[in-house]
Amino acid sequence: MASSSSAPTTPSPSFTARIPLPPSGDSPPNVESNSALVPIHIVTTASQLPAEFLEPSPQDQFIIGFDCEGEDLCRTGALCLIQLAFPDAIYLVDAIEGGEALIKACKPALESNFITKVIHDCKRDSEALYFQFDIKLNNVMDTQIAYALIDEQEGKRKRDDNISFVDLLADLRFCGSIYIVCLHPGISYDEKEEVRVLLRQDPKFWRYRPFSERMVRTATDDVRFLLYVYHRMMVNLNERSLWHLAVRGALYCRCFCVNNNDYADWPSLPPIPVFFFFLLDTLKVDGNDLEEEILSVVDIPRGMMGRVIGRRGATILTIKEGCNAEIVIGGSKGPPDKVFIIGPVKQVLKAAALIRGRIIDI
To answer: Exposed e or buried b for every residue in 36-59, given b needs 16+ CB within 10 A?
Structure first.
């Protein structure tokens, strides 16, 4: 899938980056053979984007790395930038300069089943796109979900928290040494932490224009490894996990996008594949057959969230350990007074009962 074939009217780029190539064999990482130097395009008009992205087609399906940046990114925090990683170029879509028209031009691609968006933790990005631009993010491959599924396949104990993107890149199974090989000269893991601190000190970091070299580098680093990680992860997922990856990705996309019609305007969830029913003997995990997965939202009376969370998070951690479901709380960004539960129906109902029990207890 080559985005350059559409010849978008993009000015000559001032920045370049190395994108790691999909792994082949067991050869050690090498800058020249394991990566490609690609241009970074700063996009302010839709005509600068590849035509196959603007007009998705079932005859031209492809995969991109995807991320969003903003000022306190959520339903109310301003979306400032969308990053798109193609195999031959990176596009930084400037929501500040390009405005609503540019982001709306991306809507068909972001909602399309024909373009797979590889992202790490889609929840806040999806929330911002939905409430600010009426975009229902669809067909994502969430590397945070994939990481948990692979750990589950390998029989590892479930983590108390979700893997961060930096920790994922450091994992030798999925990136590790190639991350070091493709780093910008002089960049380190420490710089990503420095930027994280800077964002806390200056929430308007992504609003500033023109883009500084650090802004371009930081935005690029959040997407340029995603296609490589995608290929490394997909070969490690069995058929059962691939279905979980698809359905949980869809549920994570709508997680914080609470509305009054029970998500009726969102795309349908991926059903349990028919052929799975003929393979139940080989698809059993811990004696349980495949079960429909859902998203449930538990409303918490005002002032009662403390009972659900507990001192230093002890109560919510106990609830998580008591059920096989993902429990998400909006925190300072909201939505307030709500707990989101994602997982198999029985486990979601169990988690919801445990949470409601904390509300009425004592």
So the answer is: eebbbbbbbbbebbbebbbebeee
Residue 1 lies in a domain: no
Task: Name the residue range of residue 213's domain.
Answer: 16-234
Measured between alpha carbons, how far is 225 from 220 in angstroms, rounded to an integer?
Answer: 9
- Looking at the fold, whether 82 and 152 belong to one and the same domain comes out as yes
Overall average pLDDT of the 79-88 stretch: 98
Residue 10 lies in a domain: no
- Please give the Cα distance from 330 to 100 (Å, whole number): 26
Regarding whether 207 and 88 lie in a shared domain, the answer is: yes
Give a yes or no: residue 260 inside a domain: no
Residues 165 and 304 in one domain: no
Neighbour count for residue 185 (Cβ, 10 Å): 4
Question: What distance in Å separates the CA atoms of residue 256 and residue 297, rounded to the nearest whole number?
Answer: 9
> What's at 328, amino acid-wise?
V
Q: What is the CATH number of the domain that holds 307?
A: 3.30.1370.10
pLDDT per residue as tens digits for the range 92-102 = 999 999 999 99
- CATH classification of the domain holding 143: 3.30.420.10
pTM score, whole prediction: 0.89
105: Cα within 13 Å, side-chain hemisphere: 21
H-state helical runs in 82-164: 95-105, 107-111, 123-133, 143-153
Q: Locate 4 and state its tokens.
A: 């350059």
Give the number of C-alpha atoms closer than 13 A to the C-alpha of residue 308, restricted to the C-beta side: 25
Cα atoms in the 13 Å half-sphere on the side-chain side of 53: 32
103 and 198 in a common domain:
yes
* Sign, CA torsion 107/109/113/116: negative
How far apart are the C-alpha atoms of 201 and 194, rounded to whole Å?
Answer: 11
Angle, vertex CA 96, rays to CA 267 and CA 122, nearest 5: 35
pLDDT one-digit tens code per residue, 241-251 = 999 999 999 99
Rounded to whole angstroms, how far apart are CA atoms 201 and 99? 26
DSSP 285: B
Indicate whether 307 belongs to any domain. yes
